[in-house]
Amino acid sequence: RYGFFVYGGAETYFTYALLFLGILLHGVSYDFYYVTAYIYVDKKAPVHMRTAAQGLITLCCQGFGSLLGYRLGGVMMEKMFAYPQPVNGLTFNWAGMWTFGAVMIAVIALLFMIFFRESDKEITAIDDRDIALTQGEVK
């Protein structure tokens, strides 16, 4: 998605279309991220703590994460990608910023694939207690 923003622009129909493709992929990538996070938390948290664990992940991602992202990200982007003098009429290196984001996502995805592996031994069968607790939540 960020790659589309690196090459997207208002110069031609193709580069304009890249911007829209990046925007369309935003919703899909957002959904995959949050659904995957909630499924992971649901699998790892004990049944009686699942609601609290999912609330905590929401607080971390949409509360503290957003606050820190806006504050620290803005300062970092200004230091790294703002031009001291306008270059070709631009005061900000947008392509550099989106490239940085794409590289960071690739690094994080690689780290995720390395460190978040599940073994067959960790997958357990659902026992009667889990079934009873789940049925109690539904009622």
Automatic annotation (TrEMBL):
Stretches that traverse the bilayer: 13-41, 53-72, 92-116
Superkingdom as given in the UniProt entry: Bacteria
Pfam families the UniProt entry points to: Nuc_H_symport
Entry keyword Ribonucleoprotein: no
GO molecular function, one term: cytidine transmembrane transporter activity
Membrane topology summary: Multi-pass membrane protein
Keyword Kinase found: no
InterPro entries noted in UniProt: MFS_dom, MFS_trans_sf, Nuc_H_symport
Chief localization: membrane
Any one Gene Ontology cellular component term annotated for this protein: plasma membrane
Database matches in Gene3D superfamilies: MFS general substrate transporter like domains
Positions of the Major facilitator superfamily (MFS) profile domain: 1-139
Signal sequence residues: none
SUPFAM superfamilies linked: MFS general substrate transporter
Subcellular localization, as worded in the UniProt entry: Cell inner membrane
Keyword annotations: Cell inner membrane, Cell membrane, Membrane, Transmembrane, Transmembrane helix, Transport
Name assigned to this protein: MFS transporter
